[in-house]
User: What shape does this take?
Amino acid sequence: MSNQNGISFPSTRMRRVRRTDALRRLVEETTLSASDLIYPVFLLSGKNQSTPIESMPGINRQSIDGILKTAEKLLKLNIPAITLFPVIAEHKKSITGEEAYNPDGLIQKSIAKLKAEFPELIIITDVALDPYTTHGQDGIIDENNYVLNDATVNILTKQAISHAQAGADIIAPSDMMDGRIGSIRSALEKENFHNTLILSYAAKYASSFYGPFRDAVNSKTSLAAGNKYNYQMNPANALESLREVELDINEGADIVMVKPAIPYLDIISKVQTKFSIPVFAYQVSGEYAMLKSASDAGYLDYKECTLESIMSIKRAGASAILTYHALDVAHWLRS
Ligand code: PBG
Assistant: This one.
């Protein structure tokens, strides 16, 4: 009996390094810290507003006063970043989503308030039109409901600039249009936002795990019979994700994202192995809903299963993880 080095049992006993907690800690390959976490929040207009999201137990949409309190908690727990998703009133939605780049819009005003109060907290903003369009698509559609690429990129670029002007640190296009990273990068440079980062959702799959998120931002009813198959990636494809990442790096992305996370660990690993750029992963709403609801029902140990799932995302190669569990995880890591 010999292993690949020609050393045989009992010279090699894999269990020696697993015997005690101290030994296990010494040989541990991956560690998780609060610094690896980014907390996504759902933003309502108005004051003192907080509404639960049925399909995401434990998560509320909140108005900016509540988000400011959340921001303070994040900093106390050493979580470096927050990402904002606006819930837009129906009367502000339109076919072409102009509200997306309104300098006095919900997101733009909220970025400024957060920055003023907590300048050290990294603010990541979502660039895509789905919260703003009556049809729930991430872009502008033609008469056949096809999402038009270049016209959409124009509006996304305006949206990105309005976020940078409001004070966003990281612009995160999640729309999957071709060429949007290059367009946003050159606009940022032209407007003198030399240090605004672009986190590209480079490998974003057409996933049904986004269902609870679409409830949260009320885009599900708008999207109705539609789908995002002609711009988000086919879950069957892996090689294609490498081309997406390569293009976005060449167009000026600083960080790339793989999304969702757990069903796509192979993609995280492939991207991290092939490219020298930080890779983030998004543990999406449906992944949260699975873990949380099974735990609430008593079928899973919430803490252990959540820590294991987030550890596996890091082990696969993610340097940071967007997760709705971020506050819970940071609390557990403290105690
Ligand atoms: C929209 C966007 C989506 C998510 C983040 N940005 C949904 C979608 O593409 O339909 C999903 C996040 C989640 O499920 O937690 N551009």
